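Subgroup meeting minutes
Present: P.N., E.W., G.H.
Scribe: E.W.

1. P.N. recapped why we're keeping a running log of single-chain structure predictions: easier to compare across weeks, and new members can see raw inputs and outputs side by side.
2. G.H. added today's entry (367 aa).
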Amino acid sequence: MTTPNIHTDQKEFVDFLESLFKAENFTVDPASTTPNVLNPFRQPDLILRKDSSRYLVSAKHYRTRIFQADLILAAARQLSLISIPYPGSEKILAVNVAVPFHLRDELAKKYRTVLLDKHELGNLTSKHPSLIPTYFATTNSASLAFEPETVLPEHNFHEPPSEGDEPNPLNESIQTENHVNANNDPTPSELPGDKLITQLATIKRGKDGWQKFEEISLNILKYLFSPALDKWKKQTKTTDNLNRYDYACRINSNNAFWGFLSSRLNTQYLIIELKNHSDKINQGQVLTTEKYLTDKALRRVAIIISRAGASDSAVKMAQGAMRESGKLILILGDKEVIEMLKAKDAGNDPSDYLYDLTDEFLLSLPR
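Output recorded in log:
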């Protein structure tokens, strides 16, 4: 299964931010465009300069409109790690969702980071009418006004500015020493995703490593997708005792991707198959997985994790299952799993990756 170009929405969001910051009289450092090939999540999306100050910007575009606190905090932690080679720089985290005021305050105190959420970006964009259409597109907003329906009502969100005030959060730089580990946060090698990547790399492909692979895979899946997926059930036999899949779990979230599976594909449960093979899986193994999927049991989606990925025949079989029966089978190799682990460490939503993968799969589905 081909890895999609998953960064389209993110790139559009970064382009919008670059235009907005330029309109606010910042200059963009050309170093921003130099990619980190090994881990693109370990570099700032933009490096800005204004007067004698330098600003590192991390941009996070989420498909789910409601903020997820763990991802926002992880993004701020990652930005602090990114800032290590840039001593004395201010840090800005920009997100396309609304974030409660208490979390913004926590980021300022713990990570010395200015948070620009959808509300703050709307305030800034209102001064630059030419950017308003792009703001709507990148934040999924219908207006520049704060939209309470997109957030959880029990949280204390940003209070409106006092009459006559025109607050500009970009002027609220945090004048403190740029010291990253004041709160004993992990170093890059100690991040949960990095640890799991290291453990995965030590597992030998083939029969000898299958038990360890099964154990590590469950830890990976729970790190990536809990609590959205829960009620994990291991190595379940079908009622005829002839077939067995590795895990079944329940969808317990209505975020963008899991909500899509529930509402559009009428599935409430997922099948997870783990293949610690040295070679790519073939069509027969996909066909076996398809047999576990059934409409009446609200189980129409499976994820196969295959160390070496999928052969062309396996991809065609997965396409056929979708085209003929409406059953979605996603096949992930080590490359895709590692990408999601790095993304989660950096504060990105790994289910957005699955959504992009699904988009690519469905858009390219042959007749």
